[in-house]
Amino acid sequence: MASKKSKKSPAKCTTAKASSSGAASKRKEPSDDTPFKSSRTDEFDSAKIAPSVDADQSIKRAKQQRALSPLESMPTELLHDIFVLSENLDLPLASKPLQSQLSNEHLHMALTRQILGEVARKAKEAKLSQEPLRFADIMQTDVQAANRLLNARFFTLEICKSWLVKSTIDTSHLPDASSFFPNRLEFHYTRLWNVNISWAVNVITIPSKLFRAPWTAGKIGLLHVLESMLPNRWPYDETAVDSMAEMTHAGLKAAIADNCSPVVSQLSRYSLGQATKLLRAAVIDHGCDEGTVSALVRDGVVYFEGEMDNLRGRLDEGEIDIEDVTPACEIDFYDVQLRDWANAAKKRGDDKSTWLMELMGEAARSVDDLHAKLIHDYQHDSIDDDGPTYDSDEDCDGLFVKE
Fold it and tell me: Annotated region Disordered: where (predicted)?
């Protein structure tokens, strides 16, 4: 028996006395991971006497048998009414009994209709009076409740769709949802949203939970629908604009790192002047995913088109002269770092080099053509400029470099 115990012990016995003694032979040397025990406890163990645990058990039993509060002991129907009418989203967090009673889909829908319905009612009143809905027309508590609702975990794409359908009184003039292709279905719900609420008001913002990974299908769908429904996208309170912009920009960077092109296509307009830097990250640092890179490049060109339209309007109004126009695309399609990456990828035999070169070359030509057309239309002089040249047969040195 002594030999078997010595094998199990991590330390060697150094004296004959330690191995021959009765109770002492059963003691183990304390290790770094062994919790501290007093000698009194060891004496209990050696004598086979278990320490008393009646005190601990009585405390646990008292916690388990805690009497319900008056609110927790109310009838379920009455508790549901209090939760919905109070619009208190913190109520289920007060205790586990309340959480179990206030967590079901039917109640979540009732709460959604209550909170968003109040904002919708005031928006409709403003629409009927033909006056724009202002931030002051809605109580601060209503705004906070609506934004917290959208950011709640239970506010999913399905909850949003159900509320839109159930809240619309007359949908006879709208096409049925089944008539839309799946990837265009959000326009059906966007119309329902606009029927319910004249969302020229910008007191509701996109919830921050949609700007964080993981990017599930439901989260992407809800972001797509809400981003279409909230055209202003920014909070009315100017002090919150910066934090909202930073949060959205952080979501865009996270989506680029995860190569989640559906989210990138929704958020790429929020590049905050760092479009070229973000494109470099997508190409050089994150594998040049075609969906992600295409979304960034496409939105860069679309944004530039919008800038051209704005400039035309200002030129027509006489606010500026054509000589003062110096438009610049947010993306530098002649970026040296992107060119160097394309050259290195071509030497490695990476087909993405050719694909990237063609994509960027087409985008650069579009930007240059838009600029040249603006100058031509308002100067009435032709510009003899054939634009940049892109040589895809030899190398990428011609990429993003004008002749």
Answer: 1-61
Separation of alpha carbons 182 and 128, rounded Å? 34
Distance CA 57, CA 66 (A): 14
The model's pLDDT over 143-191, given as tens digits with 9 standing for 90+, comes to: 788 889 999 999 999 998 888 777 654 444 444 444 443 444 455 555 5
Residue 374 lies in a domain: no
Burial of 55 (0-12, 13-18, 19+ CB in 10 A): exposed
Does this model's pTM top 0.85? My answer is no
Tokens 């002492």 -> residue: 24
Nearest of 204, 237, 187 to residue 116 by alpha carbon: 204
For residue 255, give the nearest of 216, 284, 218 by alpha carbon: 216
Give the residue numbers spanning the domain of 232.
104-236
- Would you say residue 210 lies in a domain? yes
Residue 111: C-alpha distances to residues 30, 103, 115, 299 (Å): 57, 11, 6, 37
Q: Report the alpha-carbon distance of residue 107 to residue 283 in Å, rounded.
A: 46
Total length of the chain: 403
Residues in the chain predicted with pLDDT less than 50, given as ranges, are 1-27, 30-49, 135, 169-185, 195, 198-201, 232, 235-236, 381-385, 387-394, 398, 401-403
Contact 286, 259 (CB under 8 A): yes
Element (H, E) at 106: helix 105-128
Whether 144 is in a domain gets the answer: yes
Give the chain's domain count: 1
